[in-house]
Design brief:
Length: about 350
């Protein structure tokens, strides 16, 4: 009976969904790092712009041509009043991720990215004055401790890359929080999100990329020995970035929230291990331990958040010390959109 359950179609579909999500995620990270390190194409704004263009085209094809996913209609005024501000933060988030990837190893960048739950809770507490159950704060301790240990023991530490990754966490948290208010009333999936935001992000980033990196890109084209293969890799990273968004849509609909949380943290470990095998960046034992503590902390945080969200039923009485309007048992964190490109 147990064997037939393990071999059932929903289980097989979940395993396949997780595997293809991992594959696209690691492929995007490795290709981007390869572009910056091996191809010596040190232009993160241009790489991000290529990703946005490929994602815009891909989302249009999937929704308008192939009709795999129905288009969620958005009023014209809402596109500028709601979608555009989200696209701006979305653009900053992706650019900071690529900038950090240029300066620090994949293992360090992915570990810092795991700090996002903590930045989201802190932002909601400081800026939006929301209060959380003590168990949420306790679950953040191993995440913060692991990040600190990893940062102190990182052998390839770069202050600029570290700051870019840290501010990228803040951008991700801001995007998640703003989505709750700006996109209220719209039930976006990952494909529709890219369909609306990627063109705006391209428009926002195109001029800065041209002004800041245009001359460097032209010089790189003139001096690059293997131009055609380099172009294939750069465009391929953009196509893979869109495929990652489609894979997120598939895995969300094929797994439970708990499975998604655990798989997301294992994905980080998989990306760290795979990138180390390719780039051979030095990792000390304490650094690896710090990364492990962070991932365990993220898994524990996801478990606590899930339990609180499950137990927080409508009409549940609050303690007299905490007004209903100020208490949020589970923080607003949507792990499902963190990997969007």
């Amino acid at each position: 009976m147990e064997e037939s359950r393990l071999c059932s179609w929903p289980v097989v579909r979940s395993i396949f969904a997780i595997f293809q999500w991992w594959s696209f995620n690691v492929a995007v990270i490795i290709m981007n790092k390869w572009i910056f390190q091996k191809l010596d194409f040190k232009f993160p704004l241009t790489v991000s712009c290529v990703h946005f263009i490929c994602s815009s085209i891909g989302a249009y094809v999937v929704i308008k041509v192939l009709k795999v996913k129905p288009l969620i209609s958005v009023e014209p005024e809402d596109r500028w009043r709601r979608i555009f501000p989200m696209s701006f933060v979305f653009c900053i988030n992706i650019v900071l991720g690529n900038v950090s990837l240029r300066y620090i190893p994949v293992s360090f960048m992915q570990t810092i990215k795991s700090f996002t739950p903590a930045t989201t809770v802190i932002l909601q507490w400081m800026v939006w004055r929301k209060y959380f159950d003590w168990r949420i704060w306790a679950s953040l301790v191993p995440i913060v401790g692991g990040i600190l240990l990893t940062s102190v023991t990182e052998l390839s530490f770069n202050a600029f890359g570290f700051c870019a990754a840290l501010f990228g966490c803040l951008a991700t948290s801001t995007k998640t929080i703003l989505a709750e208010s700006l996109l209220h009333g719209y039930k976006f999936d990952s494909i529709n999100t890219v369909y609306y935001m990627a063109p705006f992000a391209t428009m926002i980033l195109a001029v800065p990329a041209l002004l800041l990196e245009g001359a460097g890109v032209i010089e790189w084209i003139r001096t690059s020995p293997n131009l055609m293969s380099a172009f294939i890799i750069i465009i391929g990273s953009g196509v893979t970035a869109f495929c990652l968004n489609f894979s997120i849509f598939y895995v969300i609909h094929s797994t439970t929230a708990v499975t998604f949380n655990v798989a997301g943290n294992l994905k980080v470990a998989f990306a760290v291990a795979f990138s180390w095998m390719i780039f051979k960046n030095p990792i000390s034992p304490m650094n690896a331990f710090g990364c492990g503590v962070t991932l365990v902390g993220c898994t524990f945080y996801g478990y606590v958040r899930h339990r609180l969200a499950t137990n927080q039923l409508p009409g549940t009485p609050r303690t007299p010390r905490t007004p209903r309007a100020r208490m949020e048992m589970a923080p607003l964190v949507n792990d499902k959109i963190d990997d969007k490109v």
